[in-house]
Design brief:
The protein is of the alpha/beta class and 716 residues long. It folds into five domains: 119 residues, 3-Layer(aba) Sandwich (Rossmann fold); 120 residues, Methylglyoxal synthase-like domain (Rossmann fold); 112 residues, Tetrapyrrole methylase, N-terminal domain (Cobalt-precorrin-4 Transmethylase, domain 1); 105 residues, Tetrapyrrole methylase, C-terminal domain (Methyltransferase, Cobalt-precorrin-4 Transmethylase, Domain 2, 2-Layer Sandwich), CATH 3.30.950; 212 residues, Rossmann fold (3-Layer(aba) Sandwich). It is 34% helix and 25% strand. The protein has a seven-stranded mixed beta sheet with strand order 26-25-24-27-28-32-29, sandwiched between helices. The chain is elongated and about 110 Å long. It starts with a strand and ends with a helix.
Length: 716
């Protein structure tokens, strides 16, 4: 077995020793002080060598013990110790001894930024302190303390944070530091602890070294910045910046010993949280607690600006980028073993946010072992809730829609008007002042509409304004907006039925007198749909076709040959209780179907890839079927439908004479009633100079009937 010694003086050195001991690798750890020995965990595989070694004593010790691997894990500022270790190893090699030297480098995270002043030496920093008024928190340890006590004026203002070891306390006593100026404490120290010390001792300046993450540099920096006091930083000597990462040192040890150290990536305790409308006062208590403990924070730039994690934050919100970043950080900070991660979303996580996609992505990564850890979600207060509360109205029966990020070609104007017509009151999420101006233009010729605009809700600047369309069009001030639009004197629609009953009307048809549920009507403009080059059932034909279907609130509809999904979308939007299966085989059409489903938020619509009737296998039995395109399989489709046990309402559209000819055969081959064929010819008028001239669309044959099915045969 190879003989290994670790010269330890950092958290990384102790972690490396613990990892090697757990893997059964015997080794020696050299510590300079009794305190260094105390913080080491006792283990049968670990031998502790205590005390400072001169160059001669170190060289003799390394040769006597015949170490094969020397790992320098001393503090980044222990420059002389590092030089001594290197010199001793070099001497051993010159004498023909086979020995390897590895420098374990601490990750340094300190950059030039506001509030931080950097110095190349303790002497330069001590000189600068003469010009800074007030008490000083010195967090560089005790070894260089003498540099800062040369000036009596500076010395009397010092509060010295040192390790609670006899050596450190003796140095403080020797340098004339009074007991009330000594803070003998063992880290790690949180930002909150540093903040408390600043307030307790009236600190006006803090001094630290350019240490790494495990050295608590970030916590010191954030506490200083929070209290608006300067942080004076002693740079590490550039010549000593070489070395290997923790992972790289582990790999070298594995190669040398043949033992797998199994450095597992850090376990991630991930929290997905809605930050609320914006102001910190509107955050939930659970989220505040999570952020106070967070090592890593992610989210849109606006959301993370005021957040100070222990390690890092990054402006990321796309699932794949978040996953890649977390994989990297779980390896980079593996020495921490566990990392608390908070990913922030605006408002509430389940309300027009990216939470769902991020959650699914991370959940899959955890299940597959790509990441290790746990996942939880914390809801927040949405801007709609804030707006409704501010206006003193209920939002439970209101329409809700988002035009955030939508272009003028997306058909959102028609959707806004449609939802307002349906609900009488609606709430709108918008991108900013530009969307307020667009809404002003949209409602400029609309009467009996009341526009209420919420600006910076939850912030000190919050305003609640009732604006005319004209004033809306003049809005310039940027910020966070949410809008409520109401029809003046509107009445909330009451349910026309009691629980367990349904209002019906009497209809006389070929099948005899029946009870038929009152139907509901469509009406989305053609231009609102994303169309591409795929044919679409035009608005007039679509409305007649949907009315001919006579859909009920709990209908199951097959839309066969769905195309862009205009029929499917309109049907799905009539009632949440309707289930729509949009069946389509063409790839281009399937892509448009998915886009329109997302645009119109029709969660009760399911896209089925394939050709009917085979694609219908496994689906729940339909009550209604619309056939816009059969692909030459019309009779096969109807045969499958006729085998069902229930009566099915069918509507078919055709343009070609060949398909129209098949309609007559339907009545001859199948048991149908209420059979009807109509031809629609629609002409749209277009402006031509000073005249309006009609332009005819293709004539369309609409055939509708009730297909009796197996139920009729059984009754016969």
């Amino acid at each position: 077995m190879k003989k290994i010694i670790i010269f330890s003086g950092t958290t990384e050195g102790r972690k490396l020793s613990e990892l090697m001991a757990a893997a059964g690798i015997a080794h020696t750890v050299s510590v300079a002080t009794d305190y260094g020995k105390l913080v080491m965990k006792a283990h049968p595989e670990v031998k502790i060598q205590e005390g400072r070694l001169s160059k001669e004593a170190m060289s003799e010790y390394l040769r006597k013990e015949s170490f094969d691997l020397v790992i320098d894990a001393t503090h980044p500022y222990a420059v002389e110790v590092t030089r001594t270790i290197k010199s001793c190893v070099a001497g051993m090699k010159e004498d023909g001894l086979e020995v390897t030297y590895l420098r374990l480098k601490r990750s340094i995270h300190a950059s030039e930024e506001a509030g931080l002043r950097f110095f190349d030496s303790n002497e330069a920093c001590a000189e600068a302190l003469k010009e800074i008024k007030g008490n000083i928190l010195l967090t560089i340890g005790s070894k260089e303390l003498s540099v800062y006590t040369e000036s009596e004026e500076v010395k009397k203002r010092l509060y010295v944070r040192v390790l609670p070891g006899l050596e450190s306390l003796e140095i403080c006593r020797r340098e004339g530091i009074l007991p009330q100026q000594i803070l003998a404490l063992q880290g790690p120290f949180s930002e909150e602890f540093n903040d408390a010390l600043i307030h307790q001792y009236g600190i006006k300046c803090m001094v630290t070294k350019q240490g790494g993450i495990t050295g608590g540099f970030l916590e010191k920096k954030e506490a200083a910045l929070k209290n608006h006091i300067p942080l004076l930083v002693i740079r590490r000597e550039a010549a000593e910046e070489d070395g290997l990462s923790f992972d790289a040192v582990c790999e070298k040890i594995e190669t040398l010993t043949g033992v797998n150290l199994s450095l597992r990536p850090a376990e991630l305790m991930i929290t997905l949280a809605g930050i609320g409308p914006g102001d910190a006062d509107m955050m939930t208590v659970r989220l505040k607690e999570a952020l106070a403990e967070a090592d890593l924070v992610l989210g849109a730039k606006r959301l993370i600006e005021a957040v100070t994690p222990k390690l890092e934050k990054e402006a990321l919100y796309l699932p794949d980028k978040i996953l890649t970043w977390l994989k990297e950080k779980s390896r980079q900070y593996a020495v921490h073993e566990k990392l608390k991660v908070v990913i922030l979303f605006s408002g509430d996580i389940g309300f027009y946010s990216g939470w769902s996609k991020v959650r699914i992505c991370l959940q899959e990564a955890l299940q597959k072992g790509i990441l290790h850890g746990t996942l939880q979600s914390i809801p927040g207060i949405s801007s709609i809730q804030m707006m409704a509360a501010a206006c003193g109205v209920s939002w439970e029966n209101a329409g809700i829609y988002s035009i955030h990020g939508k272009t003028d070609t997306g058909g959102w104007q028609a959707e806004v008007l449609h939802r307002l017509h349906e609900n009488g009151r609606m709430f709108l999420l918008v991108s900013g002042a530009e969307d307020i101006r667009k809404l002003g233009a949209l409602f400029s010729d609309k009467e009996n509409c009341r526009i209420t605009v919420g600006y910076q809700l939850s912030y000190l600047q919050q305003k609640l304004m009732v604006l005319t369309p004209e004033v809306c069009q003049e809005t310039e001030q940027e910020g966070l907006y949410v809008v409520m639009i109401e029809k003046e004197e509107h009445e909330v629609k009451e349910a026309c039925e009691e629980k367990g009953t349904q209002k019906v009307c009497e209809v006389q048809g070929a099948c005899g007198e029946q009870e038929v549920a009152i139907t509901i009507s469509p009406g989305i403009p053609d231009e609102a749909f994303i169309r591409g080059k795929v044919p679409m059932t035009k608005g007039e034909v679509r409305q007649v076709s949907l009315c001919s279907l006579r859909l009920q609130k709990d209908s199951v509809l097959y839309d066969i040959g769905s195309g862009t999904g205009s029929i499917a979308v309109e049907a799905a939007r009539l009632s949440q209780g309707i289930k729509v299966y949009a069946i389509e085989k063409k790839e281009e059409a399937l892509a448009l179907l998915a886009q329109n489903k997302e645009k119109f938020q029709t969660e009760n619509m399911e896209i089925i890839r394939g050709t009917a009737p085979e694609a219908c296998n496994g689906l729940e039995e339909p009550t209604h079927v619309f056939i816009g395109g059969s692909g030459g399989h019309l009779m096969e489709i109807l045969e499958v439908l006729a085998a069902k046990k229930r009566r099915i309402r069918v509507v078919m559209n055709a343009i070609s004479l060949e398909t129209v000819a098949e309609f007559k055969q339907v009545k001859e081959r199948f048991s149908v009633c209420n059979f009807e064929m109509i031809q629609m010819q629609v002409s749209r008028y277009h402006e031509l100079g000073s005249y309006y001239m009609p332009k005819a669309e293709n004539p369309v044959m609409i055939c509708s009937f009730d297909l009796q099915g197996g139920e009729a045969d059984a009754e016969a």
